[in-house]
Specification:
By secondary structure, the chain is of the alpha/beta class. The protein has one domain: TIM Barrel (Alpha-Beta Barrel), CATH 3.20.20.140. It is 40% helix and 13% strand. The chain has helices at residues 37-46, 61-72, 91-98, 123-134, 148-157, 177-191, 203-207, 213-227, 247-257, 263-278, and strands at residues 7-11, 51-55, 77-82, 104-107, 138-141, 162-165, 196-200, 232-234. It has an 8-stranded parallel beta sheet with strand order 1-2-3-4-5-6-7-8.
Length: 282
Amino acid sequence: MPSTIHIDAHQHFWHIARGDYDWMDDSVAAIRHDIMPNDLKPHLKAHEINGTVVVQAAATVAETRFILQLADNTDFIKGVVGWVDLENAEAANTLDRLMVSPYFKGIRPMLQDIADTNWILQPAIIANLKEVAKRGLRLDALITPRHLEVILQLSEKLPQLQIVVDHCAKPEFTKDKNAQIIWCEGMAKLAKQPNVMCKISGLANEAGPDWNSDKLKPYIDHVIEAFGTSRLMWGSDWPVLNLVGDYARWWEVSAELLIDLSDQERAAIYGGNAIKFYGLQI
């Protein structure tokens, strides 16, 4: 086993015929085909990545079971972030059934696709998130800047719930100064909560096809300053990444963005923090 463990803390698989990937319209036609572990394996080998966390891509328990089955048969999958219906009074029982798998590490409601920004603060959902925390499971927060204040409130209401913000909360790559201020201030406030972490992932897609290290650097520098290197983790967001680039380029640009950090700090971001947060067995 290498001394430094590399973990891709955010990637996806899908089998289109399963039929529950409601977000896959023509805008993502380039990735609207079966993408399975053997498709990712060469990229992991090329970049010496030891394991991954597979994150849900459909708002169904059936899809969570599908990726847990993949984990049973794929040596590099170390954890799965799934989905449960947080509005359902039986959510705790669903969690218990999913936890039969040692790979089940947490849940991700698709908040970015829910019109009601405050949806997650409903009393019934808070009650179910208490059950998530009670079981030592984590919450991936798939959010945009409109949710930053909401997730801050959630983290205060449930300090026992471990939360990670996916894709740096999808900042807007715009010259709109107000939008930049909202994101910067919101992330800085959220970073003060000890139960919140952040994933360096998904930014290439937010920046658009002309993304590069110069364009991403202000955002990466901000989350490093706000969260510190002990509460950040690296992920590829592959294969969504393929809409604007590829795995090798994201790895290369990430190295440029983190070059000023120490070896110890990079090791934490590239693997150590994900192992601790998700409780991965390596």
